[in-house]
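WARN retry 2 of 3 for item q-0093 after timeout on previous attempt; input resubmitted unchanged.
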Amino acid sequence: MQLNEIKKILKENKEAFEILERYDKTGELPFQRKRIDITLSVDTINKLKKLREKTGKPISRIIEEKFKFGKSI
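OK item q-0093 returned
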């Protein structure tokens, strides 16, 4: 395999190689989910429950979307 072919493969699959590199370093994939315990005020919990009822999305998805798209909570 020629160097140009290797460079082309690396360029076309850059994101996949970055994900695998991250996995090698951390043992985690960016799309994995992990359960954690957090403490929130009753007011915050109630607001999240209202959003859940309004959108039909689980609370964890609501929180993830707020961080994923750079929106402030």
